[in-house]
Amino acid sequence: MSLPLFIACIGHIICGVTDCLLAYTPDGRFDMAKDTGDSERMSRLFEKMPLRQIEASMLTGVLALFMASFGYIKLSRWAEGYSQTAGVIMYISGMFFIVPITAHHVLCAAVEWFFVKLGRTEQALETVLLFFKRTAAAAAAYVGLLVFSATLLVLTISGKTQLPMWACCFNTLPVFVILAPTKLPAKGNIANAAMFLGLSFMLH
């Protein structure tokens, strides 16, 4: 088993849990796309939301993504042994994912924290949504994940590595495509965890 990849798997599982801490309040599930347009619903939804739950999500999520970074570095170094170009692309795109996505996670938690702390008023909602829009550029991290996963997928399918072609199923892209239609929370983290778990047993 490759320890760095297994650590990354655990990191993404933990990160998925921290995402759920932000998405599930004591009064129901929070949907950013649907709920932020209704200030009354937002106020009710976060009425009993403890700040410590948001803080736990924020801080634990940073640790979880630090753990995940070991996997991206390990896979990029492994890929470099077969294609220096692919290895470099994966290293750069992997770091482009990890660093901004960590900031994005913290910013999402901060939006909820300040909304609750400011009294869950309509003005508080306008303020935190403005903050979220001004910092939304951090979500560009997903471009890094897309490039990383696509490069790994091409490298595997090309047959240039020790991996059999069917190992391409241990990749974020196909796993996420399967999970996308479901109502599972933290789909991205589940897909990433599946990739690292599978490859941790196939790569040594």
Fraction in beta strands: under 5%
Poorly predicted sequence stretches spanning 5 or more consecutive residues? none
Strand tally, please?
Answer: 2
Total helices: the number is 9
Short note summarizing the structure:
Helices cover 74% and strands 2% of the residues. The chain is built from nine helices and two strands, in the order αββαααααααα. β1 and β2 form a beta hairpin.
Structure commentary:
By secondary structure, the protein is mostly helical. 74% of the residues lie in helices and 2% in strands. It has helices at residues 3-23, 32-35, 39-45, 51-80, 84-117, 122-134, 141-157, 172-179, 187-202; strands spanning 24-25, 28-29. It is elongated, with a radius of gyration of 18 Å.
